[in-house]
Design goal:
Length: 290
């Protein structure tokens, strides 16, 4: 399976793992029992709440699922959500459910707002609760997109073309919060565009071939900065979708159900290779960022 650290990854440790998304810094634990979304009213029976009124994880997840499954047409896997108010319990859950080492889990509890894998969404509420609900919705949406990617892929590994795995999670997450009315997509795009331009003028933007494996993604994100990773991957994915259509991205993930090389899946879904797409991308990014 695949796992992923919660959004706004500001500091990334350099270890090779399945896709983990890092974030943030440690704080003192609070002692409350972990709460399972299964315990609350969740599913078609849950009362819809206007996004501006969301104040609980069940409401948040329900709102996100409605958009993912509705307008975005993504498959929602059977999953369990655990909200851990104690970082030590979050650590234990990472080890128990996602199979990470105790040392990795200890580091992760200091910066990860959430993690996804093994049909679970684990929330580190100590960190997540620092954010206002609109920001939590964005983080949760990104993580839940990773769960739908795995469902599309028949729970086969998605550890290549990280730029697309992460870029698509960002692209869909911003669509979700736009749909929910908590963020303006136009404003978010304008902000990301400024940051990607600054990243390009600083340490530059990596070629897609260097954003392929998870180890590469982590290294490039550390060397070039956050904005050269997630916001950049958003625009790369946006251009791929504009060029080939949203349905073809879903097809790309579905193709992982059958054995074969990632390059063959990409070629079959998009009718071009990554190097061919890179040539188009370079021209388009130069126009976009000028």
């Amino acid at each position: 399976g695949m796992a992923s650290w919660g959004s706004a990854a500001r500091s990334t440790p350099a270890y090779e793992m399945p896709p983990w998304r890092p974030c943030c810094s440690p704080v003192a634990p609070s002692a409350r029992r972990p709460w399972n979304i299964d315990d609350g009213q969740h599913g078609p029976g849950a009362t819809p709440v206007a996004a501006s009124g969301i104040r609980s994880y069940p409401q948040a997840v329900q709102a996100i699922v409605d958009v993912l499954a509705g307008p975005l047409g993504l498959p929602i896997p059977a999953y369990r959500m655990e909200v851990h108010s104690d970082p030590a319990e979050f650590e234990q859950a990472l080890v128990r459910h996602l199979g990470v080492s105790a040392e990795t889990a200890r580091q992760a509890a200091g910066f990860a707002k959430a993690a996804v894998g093994s049909r679970r969404i684990l929330v580190n509420d100590t960190l997540m609760s620092r954010d206002a609900w609109p920001e939590r919705l964005l983080t949760l949406a990104h993580e839940m997109v990773h769960a739908t990617q795995l469902e599309l892929a028949g729970h086969q590994s998605l550890v290549r073309n990280q730029w697309l795995v992460e870029g698509f999670a960002e692209w869909v997450a911003f669509r979700v919060v736009q749909e929910l009315g908590t963020h303006s997509l136009a404003d978010e795009r304008a902000s990301m565009l400024r940051r990607v331009r600054t990243a390009r003028d600083g340490r530059g933007l990596a070629p897609l071939a260097d954003l392929h494996t998870f180890a590469q993604w982590v290294r490039e994100r550390e060397q070039r900065g956050f904005d050269a990773a997630y916001p950049y991957a958003y625009f790369v994915t946006d251009m791929l979708i504009e060029r080939h259509g949203y349905a073809q991205v879903l097809e790309y993930f579905r193709r992982h159900r059958s054995r074969g090389e990632t390059a063959a899946h990409f070629q079959a879904a998009f009718g071009e290779s990554v190097p061919q797409f890179q040539q188009v991308l370079d021209r388009r990014m130069a126009e976009l960022l000028k």
